[in-house]
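User: Please predict the structure of the protein below. I'd like the answer in structure-token form so I can feed it into my own downstream comparison script.

Assistant: Understood. Taking the following sequence of 527 residues as input:
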Amino acid sequence: MKLHMSKFAVRAVLQLICCVTFTTLCSQVPHGGQPFWNNPAPLNQAPVQRMGAIDLEALQAGDAITDKVKSAAWRFGQEFDVNLGLEHGHWTEENGKSVWRMVVEAPGAIAMSVNFSQFELPKGALLFLWNRERIEFIGGFDHRNHKNWGGLATGLVAGDAVVIELQVPSPLRDACALRVDQVVHAYRDIAGKAALLSEALGIQRGPFGNSGECNINVNCPEGATWQCEKRSVALIVQGGFSVCTGALVNNTAQDGSPLFLTANHCLPGNGNVGNWTFYFNHETAGCSGNTGPTNQTISGSDLLASSGASDFGLLLLDETPPESYDVFYSGWDGSDDETVQNATGLHHPSGDLKKICLEEDAPYHDNAAGAAVWWISQWEAGVTEPGSSGSPLYDHNHRIIGQLYGGSAACNGSVNNGQIDYYGRMGVSFNNGITEHLDPLGLGLEVLDGYPAAGCVTSFSLDLGVGIANAPDGVLCGGGEVFIDVTLGNFGEDNLTSATIGYAVNGGPQQTLNWSGNLSQYDTETL
């Protein structure tokens, strides 16, 4: 038995009714404070750990090859394996606290980051990373940033010398344990750090923006109607690579659970995404410009489900983005219907600021590299590049229908090269493990709008949502009774007093079920 419903009629049931409380986990979200960086005297006592020289010519030669492969991670930095702990720094007493510092240099770097394989701090301790020129800092990180795997991956700091500073109440000094196992020397601009250096110091450290000239900033006129969905999209960085792009997605509980959709091919072989860093709202404020915020990050995630059948990976971020990030959880359409009128992509090409691309024609079903995909014959505006992989594809209803797998679209100077792209299909992901996470209430929905709805989802006077639960999957033999729960939800502004529901059994003639009652906005009733 199969129940047929128009995908335009199926919306979230229990929207704003079931509020689930969940425990906030820890990540790279800072917890206040600032470094003691105004007095240069203690810094002069801090030991300096210098990384070796990089072979820039060899790195550039390799990049010239991999930059043409959309499914490859976009490399921006050289990774150095190190083994640096508290014994490699220097302690002082400042402002009533014990302060430990170590300087790490990577000569010529545009920016640097470090990975802590061990990160254990007592309550009251704060850790900061700041560049020696005192342009910017990240932190403070405290005991709430501790992760189950024991370490912490940090964001990038502009410049070629980073100061690691630990502030701790003196009696708790021996309770601290830190170990750095990786230093990243960024030799290509990432997250606008070259522009930041140039603005602050008047030093030209490389090109501003790595993507092609034909890309379109998300806050250009083309993105005017996508201001909610853009808040879902984040740049993913791991070590010296801009791994991919992805987006926060809504679920039927509408609880702001930080589910994050990207591509299966972006995942490491061991599935460990604990050291990924996610940059939200990295975009320029207007249509032109080459800098944007880089301080709205989340560090770490867990892999929930993935499949090569539609090239999807669904993650759970280690922490819900705080209210100050003003994120949006995008809606989705898993019906796989080929009624999509046009499509829009939001992404971070080559680790650059957030961009938008527009397909004015209808994408269609196809297969590519063993996966079921939406095929984009040619973008009418903008393109995608390496680093865009995993980015969401939206239909004309502003719902995600897939994530970028590959293609050959690129800039040819300041214009589009007219080539193809393809995206793994959300509808196929529904049959490969994503459903239980997107539909934790088991409502059987194939379509869901974004969250929070205020100011983002169009409101109508009359708007009925239908959800189905307990419908049998497959063929039933031997007779007997089947009980199916049909939940009606009123998402409209006016009270709902009657409805006629059409359904078919085994492809037979359409039957009807008449309902009457009185549902206020956001109220539900199960038949």
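That's the full token string. The two ends are 18 Å apart (CA to CA).
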